[in-house]
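TL;DR need structure tokens for one chain.
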Amino acid sequence: MVLDLFHLPVLASVGPDKIEKTIRSVLDRMDIGAGGYFVLFGLLFSCGLGMPIPEDIPLLVAGALIGSYHMKLAPAAILAWCGIIGGDCVLYFMGRRFGLNITSVPVIGKLVTKGRIEKLQKLFQRSGIWVVAIGRLLAGVRGVMVVSAGTIRYNFAKFIIADGLAAIISGGLFLFLGWEFADKLPMVAHQIERSGWELAVVLSVIVVGFIAYEVWRTRRLHREHKAEIHEETSRGLDPRIAKPPIKVPAK
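>> reply
TL;DR here they are.
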């Protein structure tokens, strides 16, 4: 079963017929009951390490299987996220270990060039975490982004947070599209391939908006908390020990 994953048809700037063949191959491997969850994990993990199909194909198929009750949403979503992030973590630490020499590593070396890595490194110096969040959404960039993050030893905590949030948004969208358009998966996949950059822009706006909202909400809660402490202090109460008044029952 695991070895069969590496015999899937290659999908790279091809027509609808090739996309449909790839989708059918993925569907045959995933629609096998409980084992399909682990195939989903393996496919997405392998996509990050150079398997020649985009990760949106397994996610679209998983969404279709969820919609037809052949898969359950919770385990599929969790294992899909773990597969995506697991592959990215391996790629990150390989970049950290080999540096620019990763271009000579079998399979992975075919995905990246020194020139592309150096360009991403310059972007990291200027934009940092935004390169991770947006680069994850671009099929032709995500692998180079992850390797570049490792080669420059970009902070792993920041990397995994930005990468994880972007994976939730993009992965969730592809699962939804697969569920909603289960009978039109080849058309949807072909449109995603054709409009990859436009889709990435939309997803980028969602990611930026989500992060901006979380920052605003956190700051608002912090201000409200400080205002409460100030109000209690101005009334002569120590906010650390202030307690509600004890009610004495009427006799």
